[in-house]
């Protein structure tokens, strides 16, 4: 009898252990990464459109006008062109002393605003001034294994105002060219929990130009500098992100955190498993400056079973970084001049 009870106890213990192992197995399955971000296969003509850029530019300029002009009353949005990233034909350029075949992308965005001042406080007609801020970023990313990248970012601020019987049109342009060299390559695939970092050396040339009433451009400033920095990346978690014009569709993504060591700027990026950016946020000292989300796109490689991949890994998510900050720098410097 004692032996039978002992067998029963052992049988119960085995069932309990079996149940425990089953639960652990289910938990392990449920928490394992279901998404791997693969290398994208962008083709000429592919494009991705994001909402949120206009709100960021508008908010920054609204804050600046309120802080700097005692006669400022309000800012109105007149018209905007959503931020679109378009991929063009590949180009061969010299990077690191070698002719390198590169995938080319262009980011474009513009916003038109009207500044209203206190009635009777200015010489402007109707006490208003028109502003247009246009952003253009061209990026060359090597299609093969390469530590280099090239970016040319142009911010154009156009200002119109009438007064004293004449019209005035003032343009300020900030052009920033960067050659970026990294000590490693982007990963060919990313899973939750992956961490990596790059040491980056950036050769940056910044040019500020101005002109009035479409006269010749006058270069007011030129600065060339070499910057060394360390950038860390963490693939934090899988997240479903609402996308589309009305946020009526959700897509699975991996959230990635970017930190430039020793600086106050951080970025969070959500990537689709096929490699394209779904959402991005940029912070300075913990303050959110930009939140942009995918609303529409045309990606020719989507759902294609066999894709042609390159050796250079994912493109730098920094493709979208710092545009609003640079736009404000252009505005502030042009006003100072």
Write a structural description.
With 337 residues, the chain is of the alpha+beta class. Helix content is 18%, strand content 55%. The protein is built from 3 helices and 14 strands. The strands form 2 sheets. The chain has a 12-stranded antiparallel barrel. It has a two-stranded antiparallel ribbon with strand order 1-8. The longest helix is centred in the N-terminal third of the chain and has 30 residues, at 2-31.
Stretches where pLDDT is under 50 for at least 5 consecutive residues are 1-11, 13-32, 305-337
Derived structural class: alpha+beta
Order of helices and strands: HEEHEEEEEEEEEEEEH
Beta-strand portion reads over 45%
Secondary structure layout:
Blueprint: H1 2-31, E1 37-38, E2 47-51, H2 53-68, E3 72-95, E4 98-117, E5 128-142, E6 148-163, E7 166-182, E8 189-190, E9 195-212, E10 218-243, E11 249-260, E12 265-272, E13 277-284, E14 287-298, H3 323-336
Antiparallel strand pairs: 1-8, 2-3, 2-14, 3-4, 4-5, 5-6, 6-7, 7-9, 9-10, 10-11, 11-12, 12-13, 13-14
């Amino acid at each position: 009898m004692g032996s039978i009870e002992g067998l029963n106890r052992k049988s119960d213990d085995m069932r309990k252990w079996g149940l425990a192992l089953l639960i652990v197995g289910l938990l392990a399955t449920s928490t394992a990464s279901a998404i791997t971000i693969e290398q994208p296969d962008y083709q000429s003509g592919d494009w991705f459109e994001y909402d949120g850029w206009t709100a960021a530019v508008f908010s920054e300029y609204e804050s600046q006008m309120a802080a700097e002009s005692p006669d400022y009353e309000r800012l109105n949005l007149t018209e905007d062109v959503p931020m679109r990233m378009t991929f063009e034909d590949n180009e061969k350029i010299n990077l690191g002393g070698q002719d390198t075949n590169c995938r080319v992308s262009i980011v474009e965005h513009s916003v038109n605003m009207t500044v209203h001042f206190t009635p009777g406080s200015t010489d402007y007609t109707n006490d208003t001034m028109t502003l247009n801020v246009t952003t253009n970023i061209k990026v060359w990313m090597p299609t093969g294994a390469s530590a280099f990248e090239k970016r040319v970012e142009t911010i154009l601020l156009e200002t119109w105002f009438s007064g004293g019987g004449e019209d005035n049109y003032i343009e300020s342009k900030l052009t920033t060219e960067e050659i970026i060299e990294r000590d490693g390559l982007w990963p060919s695939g990313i899973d939750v929990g992956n961490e990596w970092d790059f040491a980056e050396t950036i050769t940056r040339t910044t040019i500020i130009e101005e002109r009035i009433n479409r006269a010749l451009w006058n270069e007011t400033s030129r600065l060339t500098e070499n910057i060394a920095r360390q950038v860390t990346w963490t693939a934090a978690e899988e997240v479903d992100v609402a996308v589309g014009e009305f946020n009526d569709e959700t897509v699975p993504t991996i959230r990635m955190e970017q930190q430039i060591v020793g600086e106050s700027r951080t970025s969070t990026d959500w990537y689709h498993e096929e490699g394209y950016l779904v959402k991005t946020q940029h912070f300075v000292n913990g303050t959110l400056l930009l939140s942009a989300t995918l609303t529409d796109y045309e990606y020719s490689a989507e759902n294609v079973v066999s894709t042609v991949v390159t050796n250079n890994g994912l493109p730098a998510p920094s493709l979208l970084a710092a545009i609003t900050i640079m736009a404000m720098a252009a505005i502030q410097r042009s006003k100072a001049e």
